[in-house]
Amino acid sequence: MKTSEQIDKILLVDDEQDIREVLEIILSGSGYIVFTAENGKQALDIFKKEKPLIVLTDIKMPGMSGIDLLRKIKDNNPETEVIIITGHGDTDLAIKSLKHEAIDFITKPISDDALQIALKRANDKIITRRQLKEYTSSLEKLLREKMELQDHLSSLGIMIGSISHGIKGLLTRLDGGVYLMEAAYENQELDEIGEGLSTLKETVNRIKKMVLDILYSAKERKLKLEKINVADFAADVAEVIEQKLEGRKIELHRDFAPEEIECEMDAKYIHSALINILDNAVDACLADKTQSTHKIVFKVDQDNENLILEIKDNGIGMNLKTKEKIFNLFYSSKGSKGTGFGLFIADSIIKQHQGKINLNSAIGKGTHFNIKIPKHHMKNR
Amino acid sequence: MEKKKILIIDDDPVIVKYLEKLFNDNGYDTILAYDGLEADTIVEDVIPDLITLDIEMPKEWGPRFFRKLTKNKSCKEIPVIVISGLSSADHSIRKIVKFFRKPFDPDKLMETVKKEIG
Question: Looking at chain A, which residue has its C-alpha nearest residue B84?
């Protein structure tokens, strides 16, 4: 009888037509799709075409013997199970067939019981092999999942390490600022006090930003989409950066399209994404010692579907390695100054708006960010 | 008597300034370097009495600078204090006097410096 596992095809090989006919009836009755062949050569042709999982073959046939056929089949597909039919008293041949990995042998005249037992054996073996394969592959899957989990854990470790390293540096700066201020206060050195104060202010702002960045990256919040007048919005962004540029030889050039542009977006989020990118532009200009003055262009434009924002600086530029990794979490090219959060967050925010961010940069040539955000959202994500 | 010289190496200018002031206030001279490459050039001309070093810096990474330093004959014996935000020292750094984690306690740092070079 057939087992629950589906083993459909069986190939029956015997040179005697009577035997083929009788066995075909029995096997069909057991639910198999039966193919028959009267010699080894024909059997191999059918075998290659139909790929049956079980072959039932007579041992003594003109031309190719049953043993030869068995060997060829096993060579072709070792997972095929072959049952050998022997004549009465062919014990030696029967044993030889087992040596060549036949699953079983039955003797003529064939009893139905013996045939069913042999078929069951073949089926069991096939099922066991299949299950073993499944276990192996699920074991492999488990191993893979374990590795992925390890990766997650180690990046979490890196994250905690990176955050704590950044915070420790900033705390040391606070200590330093306070120490310098105290000394300056004792000696009533007003200039020094002012300098210490601005160091403290800058450090406090960096700590604030870092904490907010950590909070953002820990939880992606739902966007609050509103229709925004882009000109007003962009002017706000530009003002924040212009305040930072006071006293520095960097010019922020506003290149805003004259027509009114409306865009559906979470203004608070896009605001911080743009500030992050513009901050980087400022740092890229400060790091470039080859020129004494720098320019950052902040362009606002649109096409039919998108709001287009461009930020272009003539600062230090990025090499290929930096360009590839710049949006990665915790990647920073700025030594102790960078946290590796800024552009990662900018990129996430823009992607959350179903937008695109493109980057062009080369050492000595500066960096150009091109951001496209759909003006209308079909569906709130 | 001539003042003892301390070479400060850190990529954060605020921290360099902090250490500079701290050491000056305690009667030491200071030389400043913002990365390992700068420090390399400095030790070719001046032999400091002590070095404080952040082991995580851009350009010339701290440990590499440190190994170079121990190979340089005239600098081999200079005591080195590591001040870093990293939670543990690289195992390749053996001869450090003490490892301070940021943020460090200035009194304890001065204690260590005084014990080393008086």
Answer: A169
